[in-house]
Amino acid sequence: MKRLTHAALAILGIAIGACGSIDEPADMVLINGTIYTVDESNPWAEAVAVRGEYIVAVGSNAEIEELSGPETKTIDLGGAFATAGFIDGHVHVGATGSLLLGVNLLDVHEPVAFAERIRAATERMPEESLISGGSWGAYEQWASSSAGKTVTDEVAEPFTPHRDLIDAFTQEHPVLVSRFDRSMHLANSRALDMAGINENTLNPTNGEFDRDENGRLTGILKGSAYIQVRRAMPEKSFELRIAEFEAVQAEGRRGGITTIQDLTGPEMLRVYQETRRRGNLTVRINLRPTLFMVEHIASIGITKGFGDDWLRFVGYKAWVDGIMGNSGALFFEPYDHQPGNYGYLRTIMFPEGREGAGLSMTKHQKYTDFPPGNLETLLQAAVPTGLPSHVHAIGDKGVRILLDIYEKILKENDMVDSDHRWRVIHAQVIHPDDFKRFGELNLVAEINPYHVSDDMRWMEERIGVKRSAGAYAFRSLMDNGAVLVFGSDSPGTNAARYYLSPVYGLYAAVSRQTLSGEPAEGWFPDQRLTIEEAIEAYTMNPAWASFEEDIKGTLTPGKLADISVFDTNLIEAGRENPAGLLEAKVLYTIVGGRVVYERGD
Ligand SMILES: [Zn+2]
């Protein structure tokens, strides 16, 4: 094997990393690729060399083959497209796992599929574990209403299941699944037994436990009947959580996701650590505990950067208002379809406020009508830790309130022009006066591009055309100086599933169309991004926003070898045929130089 000196490599124009000696052969080379590095100093290449966990060189086939030795593993990409590993900037890992391993009934509204899905869940889940959630009937609701109608419209004959459908194959599992709107729930016989409920123990006039024409309980529960049964259900076991997380990792590997920025609960942090101890961690996790924990976390000395390349604290999560899906996002003017509803402020916005739902606002109420809220106190407590604030704000008034609080705290601490990297999560509907403040305050907008494809079906009906012009306004945010971070918001709402796969978000950002390609010219098409900008928002920008730009986000020598390989040239598809993005399949997902997914496995 011919050894090349640094000088010789420099003459070849090959980019060399600082890690490792150049005299040793690479552990792995990827050759014959169409490689988009996201690194503007060297955007395109044919091949990458990896040693250990790191990229050591990016260049032409000839250059990289020089780094091959007898032991080097070679992956011939055969022209396939490779780019920096995708970083999903917004994932609810626990909820995604529950949905993936448990039962997803969003698209189910008839008995055969209902029974089949629950039977399949009994095979995936450990014995004795509770099968819950499901959200049956959600898509039926959509199908029965014309485009633009809301999910609350009446459906002629909604599907209502009976426990007889599932009892035969669910003796080993209590089942307590719910209709998508939580208006009713179905318990199987095992669950009713565990709660000590049967025809004889109940007052026959109790209508919250539904009965069939023979007087037998159907298993359908409403109101407090659900709560009564729910209380008797087993807690989720640690092993079940581990299994759920493995299902999340598997979906991430198939999607080319190499880092997840989670909204982390304490139970998940334990799961990540145990998964890692067992040698099974295949996705890096950026941790964002809730801001309510700031004093505990700060009190044991955790500050910015704590953790390592696999598990790292990158910020604190908090909330200002509700969400669009249930018309809870806070606006200056009421919702068009619900006159009188302005949305609500989360309880953290009030003195001593805790995590939880909030208080509805009226037209004349300003948030300054209340004493300074707990959010301000907690944000201030987080400042000395250096861990940035990541706060959810969705409606135009919700975003205004957050910008006001951010401005106040950043100014009081003389931090406006510091490298603080604070985020506005969602930043969904922005008042025209507020775009410029993202640049003035040097903020990151952590946004969910796929919401465009999904929410545009009802946005104008709910908030009108004028306000919709400031909705998902990614171009305006960018032009005004916000750094864009993309996230899937997996697993989604009880009306839509958001996948751990970047192609949906990339498609939505460049096309601003529904999955079926409507409207033809795109919804507010001036707000479209280029595919290059969209990929940056899914790779380089989230790495920067978590203070990890030195180790990931681009395919650059010296950075971690986190690489996603697709069968489709994402840049070409994004420019010429955005629908082609939706067809793109991941061929390899590589994390820290290890192939964790290979298509066909
Ligand atoms: Zn979310």
Structure notes:
The chain is α/β, with parallel strands linked by helices. The chain has three domains: 6-79, Roll (Urease, subunit C, domain 1), CATH 2.30.40.10; 127-231, Roll (Diaminopimelate Epimerase, Chain A, domain 1), CATH 3.10.310; 242-594, TIM Barrel (Alpha-Beta Barrel). It has a six-stranded mixed beta sheet with strand order 4-3-8-27-28-29, covered by helices on one side. Helix 13 links the parallel strand 22 (423-426) and strand 23. Residues 1-13 and 144-156 have low confidence and may be disordered. The site of zinc ion has 3 residues, from loops.
Straight-line distance between termini: 32 Å
Structural class: alpha/beta
Give the radius of gyration: 25 Å
Which hetero ligands occur in this complex? zinc ion
Q: Report mean pLDDT, rounded to a whole number.
A: 91
Write a brief caption for the model.
The chain has 601 residues and is an alpha/beta fold.
SSE layout:
Elements: H1 6-12, E1 15-16, E2 28-31, E3 34-36, E4 44-45, E5 47-51, E6 54-59, H2 61-65, E7 73-76, E8 81-84, E9 86-91, H3 93-101, H4 111-124, E10 131-136, H5 138-144, E11 175-179, E12 185-187, H6 189-194, E13 209-211, E14 217-221, H7 224-231, H8 238-255, E15 257-262, H9 266-277, E16 284-287, H10 294-299, E17 311-313, E18 316-319, E19 344-346, E20 358-360, H11 374-382, E21 389-393, H12 396-412, E22 423-426, H13 435-440, E23 444-447, H14 450-455, H15 459-468, H16 474-479, E24 483-486, E25 492-493, E26 496-497, H17 502-511, H18 531-536, H19 540-545, E27 563-566, H20 570-576, H21 579-583, E28 586-591, E29 594-598
Parallel strand pairs: 2-7, 3-8, 9-15, 10-11, 15-16, 16-17, 18-21, 21-22, 22-23, 23-24
Antiparallel strand pairs: 1-6, 2-5, 3-4, 5-6, 8-27, 11-12, 12-14, 13-14, 19-20, 25-26, 27-28, 28-29
Helix pairs in contact: 3-8, 8-9
The protein binds zinc ion.
